Amino acid sequence: MAGGIYLDIDASELDAQIDRLKSALTPARVNQVMYGIFQRTGGHVRKILKEDLPKQYYIKPGEVGKAVGRATVTSGAGGTGCVIPISGPRKSIGGGFGASGGAHGWASLRRRYRVKARIVKSGQSTLPQQMDSYGGQAPFRNLGSKLGGLTFTRAGKGRFPILKVVGISVAQMPTNRSKSEVQADIKAYLEKRMEHELQRLIGG
Q1: If you compute the radius of gyration of the chain from its CA atoms, what whole number of angstroms results?
Q2: How many CA atoms lie within 13 A of 83 on its CB side?
Q3: How many angstroms separate the Cα of 65 from the Cα of each of 60, 85, 94, 173?
Q4: Contacts (Cβ under 8 Å, ≥6 apart) of 33
Q5: Segment holding 66, helix H or strand E
Q6: How many Cβ atoms from other residues are within 10 Å of residue 184's Cβ?
Q7: What is the pLDDT of residue 2?
Q8: What local confidence, expressed as pLDDT, does residue 3 receive?
Q9: Residue 161, preceding bond cis, omega within 30 degrees?
Q10: pLDDT tens for residues 74-88?
Q11: Nearest partner of 53 among 167, 150, 195, 175, judged by Cα
């Protein structure tokens, strides 16, 4: 997956089925069959992610679909593999993810309030009053300004520069709260395709 993020699928339970293929087919034909299985599975991952990610996160299926690229299947002496790129930036708080809290004008910097974001469906996420990963300053939302309700924080103690506060990206979702469900659904589809090929090629 894009950005150095990978989702590993444990397919060790398929070893027995792969051995059955190897006993009935030439190595070249096994690679060809596995290539087709991974190609179909890779193409189905977009559908799986569009269904699974919105269960945990405030994200629309269409947005997930746009982020998932075309699967690339590799086949060689070392076996067959599949890489599925997922692109897109981390979603802004108050833009990509809904947010609450804030004030108008200078009050957005001077008044004490908490910024809350709707990222995961299990509950609102409250941003810390000190954004240590940015500059150690409080997050703020200047409502009604040209900042558009987005959440920002200062890079330091001075008024500028300010930095946009962001949450998780689509590419990170399958390796976080949605990980177990995504892994299980991809594995189930992979097993289904494998069994289908076995039935078709060697009659079960």
Answers
A1: 23
A2: 11
A3: 9, 12, 22, 13
A4: 21, 25, 197, 201
A5: helix 61-67
A6: 13
A7: 40
A8: 46
A9: yes
A10: 876 667 788 888 988
A11: 175
Alpha carbon of residue 78 to chain centroid: 28
Q: Fill in the amino acid letter for 14.
A: L
Instruction: Examine the pLDDT at 1 and tell me if it is beyond 50.
Output: no
> What's the one-letter identity of residue 76?
G
The two structure tokens encoding residue 65: 């679909």
Q: Look at the chain and count its residues.
A: 204
**Residue 85: which residues within 8 A CB-CB, separation 6 or more?**
1, 2, 68, 69, 70, 72
Note the pLDDT of residue 203: 63
72 in Cβ contact with 81 (< 8 Å): no
The token duo for 179 is 């990980």
At 28, the pLDDT band (50, 70, 90 cuts) reads confident
- Mean pLDDT over all residues of the chain? 90
What pLDDT digit, counting tens, does each position of 64-75 carry?
A: 999 999 888 887
41, two tokens: 């599975």
Residue 188 tokens read as 């189930």
In angstroms, what CA-CA distances link 16 with 13, 20, 21, 23, 167? 7, 6, 9, 11, 42
Question: In the chain, what percentage of residues exceed pLDDT 90?
Answer: 64
